[in-house]
């Protein structure tokens, strides 16, 4: 890390930092052509009713497979896409693709689509939603948009107006990763979210008997109930966690216990099977 350049001069250099910047630059270049090269695709993760365990929705989760970089995690390329504004065209593609797919599902199954703050700040965000709905033929009430608390950090009013526009279309809005951001309860008063998604970290904490996590989940469930909002617990990995979450009064559950994010072919097969069962 510290290299002797001779003459008693020591220069600090950071090979790891350098590699990261270089890797980032390469990744950004590849991401710029990812859409055109058909390298993006969607996975879908089931969300179930906590009591009946019936399917209520699928969350669309974008994936990127590149010849040079392999499968790149969204945790890595979404922040990069946000920094470079590539999230705007990528987000449009996700919205259209997710609506197209959901339009082929049974009416009672909704689709959840993640939206970044950068997308909401685009003046034509609502137009892209209108377009995705009309091109796919999806009923607006079947689309739920997921945003995180980070939308309230910048231009909160612009973001709020954009969300109100899509709510006026009949879509709903969920507050994702609740409790992990710079939470301020004030905006729960300003925007009528349909769902609060309790972050996976609280579910994990609760399953390890953390009194704080349990108290926070209980408080969020009670608060959501009084506000007329529902709750979804994220990251439920075991039957024990599912039972605990259900007993705490969460309305919906998402997590590996009920299903991992799956490729579109698998989703189609699920519905094909259930059709066969119904007609049999
Ligand atoms: P998110 O919206 O909170 O999505 C849930 C993440 O938790 C997903 O990670 C999912 O695979 C993971 N997960 C679900 N159940 C479990 C579980 O039981 N255990 C564990 N350990 N993890 C679970 P993923 O797919 O890697 O996505 C990460 C994040 O990337 C998402 O978090 C979302 O913020 C963002 N993202 C994904 N797709 C999109 C997109 O199309 N647009 C935007 N703007 N962001 C997206
Ligand atoms: Mg989400
Ligand atoms: Mg989440
Ligand atoms: Mg998350």
Give me the strand/helix succession.
EEHEEEHHEHHEHEHEHHEHEEH
Strand line-up of the largest beta sheet: 3-4-6-7-8-9-10-11
Strand elements, count: 12
Radius of gyration: 21 Å
Low-confidence stretches: 1-7
Which assembly state applies to the chains in this document? Answer: single chain
Strand content: 15-25%
Spell out the key features of this protein:
280 residues; alpha/beta; 12 strands; 46% helix; binds ligand C2E; binds magnesium ion; EAL domain-containing protein
What can you tell me about this protein's structure?
This protein has 280 residues and is α/β, with parallel strands linked by helices. It has 11 helices and 12 strands. It has an 8-stranded mixed barrel with strand order 3-4-6-7-8-9-10-11, surrounded by 5 helices. It has a two-stranded antiparallel sheet with strand order 1-2. A hairpin with a 5-residue loop joins strand 1 (2-4) and strand 2 (10-12). The chain is globular. One magnesium ion binds at residues 59, 114, 146, 176.
List the helices and strands and how they pair.
Blueprint: E1 2-4, E2 10-12, H1 15-32, E3 40-49, E4 55-66, E5 70-72, H2 74-83, H3 87-102, E6 110-114, H4 117-120, H5 125-136, E7 143-148, H6 156-169, E8 172-178, H7 186-190, E9 195-198, H8 200-207, H9 211-227, E10 230-233, H10 239-247, E11 252-254, E12 262-263, H11 264-279
The structure holds ligand C2E and magnesium ion (3 copies).
Organism: Qipengyuania pelagi
Protein name: EAL domain-containing protein
Domain EAL: 24-275
